[in-house]
# Entry
Amino acid sequence: MTALPLVFEAPRRGKPPRHLADLDHDQRRAAVTELGEPAFRADQLARHYFARLSTDPAVMTDLPAAARTRLVSALLPQLAIPVRHLSCDGGTTRKTLWRAVDGARTESVLMRYPDRATVCISSQAGCGMACPFCATGQGGLTRNLSTAEIVDQVRAAAAAIRDGELAGGPGRLSNVVFMGMGEPLANYPRVVTAIRRITDPAPKGLGLSQRSVTVSTVGLVPAMRQLAAEGLQVTLAVSLHTPDDELRDTLVPVNQRWNVSEVLDAARHYADITGRRVSIEYALIRDINDQQWRAELLGRLLHKRLGARVHVNLIPLNPTPGSAWDASPQAAQERFVALVREAGVTCTVRDTRGREIAAACGQLAAATPPADEPLP
# Structure
């Protein structure tokens, strides 16, 4: 079993350049004046970035020609290069491999549905939680992403949907899920600041609804409680995967520090403080965590601890390289759902997207393509 560090600190690599999305309103104006421009230029830059989703100085015609390139270079630097796009599901799902300026690699997944468009973003390059059924966790942690590196995944996704780059024509990004690479609450200050940038109204932010943002965690209890005090209305998704400590110690090693009872207490606290229903993520693994008694125990625990403020999201295990585990058969899946529901807990099976391009839950590994060249 992999031992976890006492403190969840990411290894240090090259520091990403300063970016407009890292700064609040006053800091942006101060940064612009340091460059010898009037403070209101910061508001103009923010309008291009957050409202028009652009970083191209050529279209910023409201800025003086002599200042455009200098301002963009200083405050809207390119943070990552899209190395590769892979698409599936009839062109409605697209995974992007990003290479940051220091070489760190991350992935994001953009998904188009009939009634919404969702981007699944990364908060870290890699992950230090070491869950054995997750490709990201098995690859280890490279570093935390900066606030701007997180936000820019959302901006790029919003621009792609607006410009009709996915099947279905032009549209609008509606949902953001922190379920890509990394444990979001292990990069707490940057993730919370990114949420505010994503949800603040333009031109201060991208203007998405807080209720359309979901933050996933394997159960970092102090950070869950801290998030409850932030005054946000985001959905908290807890990756539980089994209701008993004996198995969870192996499936989710952080359980050795904060056990199932502590995690559920923190989830109840979040629901009580925010009034938001908590999502329980459960990857269903054949003959590992799909037994009838575990379904019954899960239902009882959740009904007792969270009542109506919980929803179980079953995820048939997605295959990862080198893993001997696979998804539970359909009959076991249906039985599990029925037993959880019998306990009075809402339970549904997630509509899996992107499995054939390794873009589904637990599959993101930021693998290097055969020819590691940026897209034209």
User: Anything to note?
Assistant: Confidence is low (pLDDT under 50) at residues 1-11. The longest strand covers residues 80-88.
